[in-house]
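Inverse folding, one chain.
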């Protein structure tokens, strides 16, 4: 599937810029970044934004990534949107990911080249595919 609307929820504006710059080199999908997870949940619930793929940071103020993912999966209109957890931390386990309903857990690469490879791989996955 070719994703047309990609949402990143991440409180770090530099990470959002890096993501967007990388994504533009491999996809013509519409990109939206939201830095406030509570606002993102509100806009998702009210269908003000309609992504077909979400990248979600783990550590955010107001609401953590796993808390937000839990809320997304509770909502009928949102529960089938694939969500990948994306973080600099490497301590999450496969068990945690499955409990939260994520399609995979990705560690944010530090280089443009590595991030481009990571995003390309994710965007080329078949629908419904889990990384674990």
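Residues assigned per position:
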């Amino acid at each position: 599937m070719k994703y047309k609307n990609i949402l990143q929820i991440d409180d770090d504006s530099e990470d959002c810029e890096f993501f967007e710059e990388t994504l533009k080199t491999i996809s013509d999908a519409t990109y939206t970044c939201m830095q406030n997870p509570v606002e993102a949940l509100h806009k998702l619930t009210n269908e003000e934004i309609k992504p077909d793929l979400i990248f979600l940071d783990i550590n955010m103020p107001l609401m953590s990534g796993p808390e937000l993912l839990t809320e997304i999966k509770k909502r009928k209109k949102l529960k089938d949107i694939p969500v990948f957890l994306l973080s600099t931390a490497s301590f999450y386990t496969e068990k945690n990911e499955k409990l939260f309903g994520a399609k995979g857990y990705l560690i944010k690469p530090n280089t443009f080249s590595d991030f481009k490879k990571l995003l390309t791989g994710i965007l080329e996955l078949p629908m419904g595919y889990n990384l674990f």
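The longest helix spans residues 13-24. The mean pLDDT is 88.
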